[in-house]
Design a protein that fits this description.
about 270 residues, TIM Barrel, 8-stranded parallel β-barrel, 8 strands, about 15% strand
Length: about 270
Amino acid sequence: MIRLAAASLSFDGFGDNNFVKTFELAPQIGYKYIEFNCWYPSTLTPAKMCDLNERMSKTGLKAAAIHVGSFGGANRDDLAKDVCHKIRAMQCAKELGCRRISASGYDRGGAGGIEGIIESLKELAPIAEEMDVLICLENHAKNNLENIDDYRRIMDAIPSQHVGINIDTGHFDAAGVDMMRLIDEMGDRVNHIHVKENKFFGKKEFTRFGEGITDNYAVIEAMIERGYEGFLTVELSPEIGEHDGRPFTMDDIKKPYALFSKYVTDGM
């Protein structure tokens, strides 16, 4: 089944805004599923999980995944914190009734690099298997998770099917990565997809859907052909407004819902 979700950042931006606009606007557009961007301490507490469950019950929304801070660590203490942070994220996912956590890495070369991510995943993979939670490793431009070789190293080191790739289409275009090549080589390890649009290939400048060069349709259809089942999460990045100076409107938020609803095989 393919399900369509929206990232809470599309409504509430990067701040700790208690998901107010997400709960207000997402149901108006028609979204049933939300990927909650839980980047702040307040967003990972047991009390917050109770609060989110209560608000989802009232609005009819469901959790698709939670997105948390970066993987990796340069030393013993940082790695221990990272592992504990991701264990809590997996607990939160279960408390919200979903089975996916997503995160990227730190800036490229920092926080132990790929080796730091692998060290954390060695501890986390058996826990993810026991909890039946999928760890979705999201690519970002100029990040420790950026290109095909980065994922090749991780997938070779961590064979667990509970650890996989979260394709971020806009970030792969920004980093100049051939997504068809990645899908051909490692499509069976893709466990989540973020749809975004970038204006150029090889330079990061996110833009509104329909105004860039990212071929989201080609990526989605290639993955469906390989038997992909899971979520397509729409990310309308707040960075876009920083580039073009235009305020977001409801039409900007509605457009990706209209564009990608055709792939949904489990209601809307």
